[in-house]
C-alpha cells in the first residue's frame, strides 16, 4: 500500500536543570556557588530527502523524541546539549497539527529544512543568582519543558499536470508514452494504487512534471474507495488532463465520467475547478477514422459550452499526443511559475511554558489554593525562604498570569495563598 499519510507523536528534548553546588576546596573555607547550567534539549527538525517518495518510515513507528539536555554539575560545568532529532521526509510533505488540522510546515519549494519543535532551554545554575546580599543561593533554575505534539504528515505530490480518469481508461499507458515513467500497466478493473510521476521533455529545453492521480471514482470525496486518500495530490497541480475512453470499450459514458470526477473535485475543494482543464479522448486506435459520435459529443458538451479543448489521441500508437502536449504547454504558460506552498497556520512554540495548566480554588477557610504541575516543580527547585528566591518565584507567578487571575477572583491584601503546603500572605 502506498504510504502518503501518517500520524505520529513528536517530542523535543527537555532542557537540563541548573545545578546547586558550592566550591569546596582545601584552604577555601567559604567557596562561592559553582553550580553549572543545564544543557539545551534537542530540537525536532524535518528535512527533505530527495531519495524518498513515500511516508513508509512512519507507518510502523509512532513516537519520535529528541534527546533531553543533561543537568549542570559542580565546578561550573555545563550540561551536555541534547541531540537534535532529524526526521527525513519526501518533498511535498505537509506537516499539520493533528488536533486542529492547521498547517505547521510545508516541505516544498525552498523549505528544505524546518525546525518544528524547539528543545527546552537549559536551566541556570546557582552561580548566576549570587548577589552582594545573597552570596550562597541555594536554588537554581529548572530546564525548559519539552514540547510534545501529535502531527499528521500528508504527502501531496508536486507535479505541474495531473491525469485524472476512471480505472482502465489508459492513464498509465499515456504516462509511459509521454514520460520516462514505467508504471505497471494491465487490463485491470481496479485503479492504480499509487501516484506515478514522470517528466515530459519537449523541444527548446521546456519540460514539465506529470502525475497519474489514481483513485478518483464516484464517492471519492466522501471517502469511498481509495479516492479520498489521493484527492490531495491534485491540489498542487496546475493543469488537469481528463483521460476518457473514446472507443467505448468499457461501456462507460465519457461525458458522465468527466462530470462525475469534476463533482468529486468540487466537493473536495472547489478551487480545484479553477485550474485549466483539457480532455484527452483516448483509444482512437480502436475506432474507424479520426472521430466518432463519442468525440463529437465531447466537443459539443465541453468545447462549445465550457471552452475545454478535446484532443482525440491514442496512448498506444502516439497519435494526437504531440498536439495535446503543446496545448498543455500553452496552458502552463498562463499559470503561476512558483510552486504551490501552503502557508504556516499553527506555531507549536505557543504550547510551551505559559500554557501549563493550573487551578485556583477558594478553600473553606477563605484561602486561595493554587495548584498545578509547573508550580509544584518550581517550588521544588526554588529556595523561597531567601529573599532572592521568593522574588524569583513571585516573578514566575506573574509571568504565568496567576497573580492577575487572583485579583480577578477578588483577592485582597492580607489574604492567604496556599500552594502545596506553603502559605503566603498576599500583598501587591
Automatic annotation (TrEMBL):
GO cellular component: cytoplasm
Residues the entry annotates as binding Mg(2+): 172, 192
UniProt xrefs under Gene3D superfamilies: GTP-binding protein OBG, C-terminal domain, GTP1/OBG domain, P-loop containing nucleotide triphosphate hydrolases
Subcellular location, record wording: Cytoplasm
EC number(s) reported in the record: 3.6.5.-
Any one biological process term the GO annotation gives: ribosome biogenesis
Obg domain: residues covered: 1-158
The name this protein goes by in its record: GTPase Obg
Cofactor(s) listed: Mg(2+)
Domain OBG-type G: 159-333
Domain OCT span(s) in chain numbering: 350-428
Function statement: An essential GTPase which binds GTP, GDP and possibly (p)ppGpp with moderate affinity, with high nucleotide exchange rates and a fairly low GTP hydrolysis rate. Plays a role in control of the cell cycle, stress response, ribosome biogenesis and in those bacteria that undergo differentiation, in morphogenesis control.
Lineage, top ranks: Bacteria, Bacillati, Bacillota, Clostridia, Lachnospirales
Amino acid at each position: 500500500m502506498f504510504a502518503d499519510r501518517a500520524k505520529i507523536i513528536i517530542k523535543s528534548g527537555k532542557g537540563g536543570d541548573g545545578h546547586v553546588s558550592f566550591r569546596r576546596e582545601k584552604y577555601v573555607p567559604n567557596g562561592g556557588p559553582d553550580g553549572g547550567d543545564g544543557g539545551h534539549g534537542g530540537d525536532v527538525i524535518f528535512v527533505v530527502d530527495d531519495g524518498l517518495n513515500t511516508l513508509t518510515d512512519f507507518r510502523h513507528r509512532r513516537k519520535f523524541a529528541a534527546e533531553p539536555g543533561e543537568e549542570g554539575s559542580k565546578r561550573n560545568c555545563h550540561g551536555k546539549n541534547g541531540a537534535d532529532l532529524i526526521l527525513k521526509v519526501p518533498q511535498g510533505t505537509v506537516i499539520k497539527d493533528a488536533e486542529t488540522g492547521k498547517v505547521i510546515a510545508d516541505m516544498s519549494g525552498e523549505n528544505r529544512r524546518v525546525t518544528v519543535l524547539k528543545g527546552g532551554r537549559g536551566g541556570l545554575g546557582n552561580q548566576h543568582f549570587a548577589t552582594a546580599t545573597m552570596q550562597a543561593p541555594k536554588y537554581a533554575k529548572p530546564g525548559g519543558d519539552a514540547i510534545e505534539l501529535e502531527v499528521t504528515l500528508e504527502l501531496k505530490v508536486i507535479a505541474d499536470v495531473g491525469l485524472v480518469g476512471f480505472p482502465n481508461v489508459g492513464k498509465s499507458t499515456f504516462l509511459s508514452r509521454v514520460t520516462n515513467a514505467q508504471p505497471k500497466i494491465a487490463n485491470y478493473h481496479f485503479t492504480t494504487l499509487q501516484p506515478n510521476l514522470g517528466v515530459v521533455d519537449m523541444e527548446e529545453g521546456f519540460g514539465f512534471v506529470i502525475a497519474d492521480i489514481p483513485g478518483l471514482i464516484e464517492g471519492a470525496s466522501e471517502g469511498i474507495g481509495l479516492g479520498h486518500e489521493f484527492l490531495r495530490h491534485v491540489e498542487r497541480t496546475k493543469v488537469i488532463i481528463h483521460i476518457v475512453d473514446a472507443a467505448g470499450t468499457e461501456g462507460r459514458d465519457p461525458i458522465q465520467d468527466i462530470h462525475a470526477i469534476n463533482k468529486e473535485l468540487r466537493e473536495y475543494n472547489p478551487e480545484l475547478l479553477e485550474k485549466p482543464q483539457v480532455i484527452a479522448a483516448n483509444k482512437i486506435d480502436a475506432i474507424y477514422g479520426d472521430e466518432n459520435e463519442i468525440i463529437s459529443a465531447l466537443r459539443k458538451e465541453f468545447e462549445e459550452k465550457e471552452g475545454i479543448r478535446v484532443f482525440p489521441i491514442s496512448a498506444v500508437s502516439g497519435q494526437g499526443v504531440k498536439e495535446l502536449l503543446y496545448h498543455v504547454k500553452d496552458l502552463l504558460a498562463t499559470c503561476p511559475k512558483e510552486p504551490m506552498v501552503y502557508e504556516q497556520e499553527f506555531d507549536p512554540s505557543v504550547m510551551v511554558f505559559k500554557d501549563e495548566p493550573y487551578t485556583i480554588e477558594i478553600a473553606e477557610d477563605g484561602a486561595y489554593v493554587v495548584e498545578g504541575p509547573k508550580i509544584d516543580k518550581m517550588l521544588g527547585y526554588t529556595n523561597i525562604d531567601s529573599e532572592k528566591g521568593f522574588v524569583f518565584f513571585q516573578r514566575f507567578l506573574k509571568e504565568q498570569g496567576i497573580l492577575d487571575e487572583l485579583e480577578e477572583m477578588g483577592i485582597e491584601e492580607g489574604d492567604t495563598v496556599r500552594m502545596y503546603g506553603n502559605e503566603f500572605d498576599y500583598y501587591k
